[in-house]
Amino acid sequence: MIIDSKDKTIEVHGDMTHEFFTVKEHNLAHIFGILRGSLYSNKLSAIIREYCTNAMDAHVQAGLNDKPIEITLPNQLNNLFVVRDFGLGLSESDIYNVFSSYGESTKRGTNTQVGMLGIGSKSAFCYVESFVIKSYHGGEEKTYNAYIDETGIGVVSKVHETTTDETGLRIEIAIKSHDSWSFNREISNTLRFMNPVPNVVGRSNTSIEPFKFIVENDKWAIGNWIDSRVIVLMGSIAYPVNLKACNLPDEVYRVFNSNSSDYKSLIIKAQIGDVRPSASRESLEYNKQTCEFITETLVNIIDEMQSEVNKAIESCNSVYDARCIFNSINNSFKAFGVTPTYEGEKIISSVVQIGKINIPYKKECYDDGKWTTSSKQPNIFARDETYIFVRYDNIPRSSARERADLWCKNSGVYKSDSHKHIIYLNNEDDFIAFKNHTEIKGANLIDLSQVNLLKVRKKSSAISSIKSPAYTYRNSYTTLNNSFWVPAEVDYKYDQNYYLAINRFEPSGRIKNNLEINRLMQYARSLGVNVPTVYGVKKADEPKLGSGWKDFATYIYSESLDVILRNHSDAIKSYLTNRVFTNTENILLRNMTFTKQEHIDLQSQILSVNHYFDSYVRDAIYWFADDYLSKKVIEMESVKKDIYKDYPMLNILSRCSYLNESDIDTVKQFIQG
After folding, report:
1. How many CB atoms within 10 Å of residue 237?
2. Rg (alpha carbons) of the chain, rounded to whole number
3. What is the pLDDT of residues 186-214, one digit of tens each?
4. pLDDT tens per residue across span 229-252
5. How far apart are CA 661 and CA 331, in angstroms?
6. What is the fold, at CATH topology level, of the domain defined by 25-201?
């Protein structure tokens, strides 16, 4: 980004002494420490933002605007955050100039790239003491280690080089294990506006959802609440706007100022250079240029709001969709006095006018955890999370609720903010007229006759079945324990099911809580294990169960462990090596020449490790195989101790935080003569 520069003429009268500002060499570590440690308030977000925007800038420079960058997220077995671009890469001199010099930037002559301050490339130091840079440039792949040395200033050192056909840059930063969950959450928050959306590799269950605008044109948009009532979006980075700092006219300030989280956020789309970010790029610098741009844009938005909202409403496919849009953005344009229209009719409410349909019906709604005909929810509101179930005379009326519950269970619709209704109609003609009516067309409409109930055949037995109270497990989005269990009837003596003993709607055995049940089910399914229905049986009734009942925890752990041992040897090797060896130990043991067979076997296992496989498999190993692998860890640690007994120098060097290729060669020569 181009930085404003103004020529200044200073007139000096008389004979005056002067001294230019500078930084003395003995103060460099102090100044660099401030730039590293005090600049960013959110350090996790900073390293994500800085290196991902740098990678996107590299694609712009190389003409790869539509190609996504790649990122690898940390997990329990591999703690690296990796950002990879496929641009031109950097020469060795560029690496040293950019990464070892604060204030050095190659982007100040263009407004096609975000960077300009010469600080972001060093932002990893706000969080770690070292990180790795790999440059693919000019047919060579060169690896550098950037680290804070004993002087506190910092060093960039080349550690390896080889030939390659690739181009681009790769940044590797180790994320602390206790920050892994927070880091992955920051990913979606920080990168939600990036276009194209980065490609996440190494975690098949993780993706970055692009931010969805409700109303949008090429200059501004309305979306769900972000961090502020007004946001400036520049170069894929969202900057919250402090309206008071902009010196807005009173009438403009009144329209846009609101502290209510019910309001949506207004996003101003700025071109690179329209506003000036702060040094941390966490906020804006409210100079004259920034304030004038924001003020002018907000004044124009007031004039354009009516037409843009109408455009969004008119683009809908039905009245129902228009009411959904109205519900989404009502609070956002209420302050502007906007009344949208659809096909010439004013849309002033998100309520579906069932009374206008003129078809005989009865309605039930799901309220307070049960189906009811009460008037607590007399209306149907047009929302994305509203579901309308319809029953007519081709299925028994008594099966409607059960079918609706089954559909919700199969579709994962258990959120407390979903709205569910059952409409009872007389015949198929009424159903066709109902679903095609303008007030309903476009809604989440489910024909209950298409939901198949499983018919349970009665067992022919001379012994009568005795029904007993139990519960079936379902995942819940609430924290109430009883929301995870649905009442059911079973035969304690003769049924054949999987069960968990529960006490006050919470498991009391090996599985510690209700959320853990769902987690184990997900991991088991990712392994290909058949996950049966789980019945909750009161702890006091557990002795009454017959031989056909099996403990679910025992089943899920044993079956999953069996699959892991048979099919996921790579994941097991990765788990073990990462648990037993530090990075330095890994490097040392990979490069030594051993004579004992058990030492060679251990080295072969380290060399064959593949860190890239499904993250659900890694997590499944953590849950299902930890007890088994703990024994293997003890065996590997015993072999490691034996290696250190034969080669004491390796034991000493294993405590180093950094070793380069030359160090390894020296060690090999010393140990092996």
Report:
1. 21
2. 32
3. 888 888 888 888 988 865 456 677 788 87
4. 899 999 888 999 998 899 888 878
5. 61
6. Heat Shock Protein 90 (3.30.565)
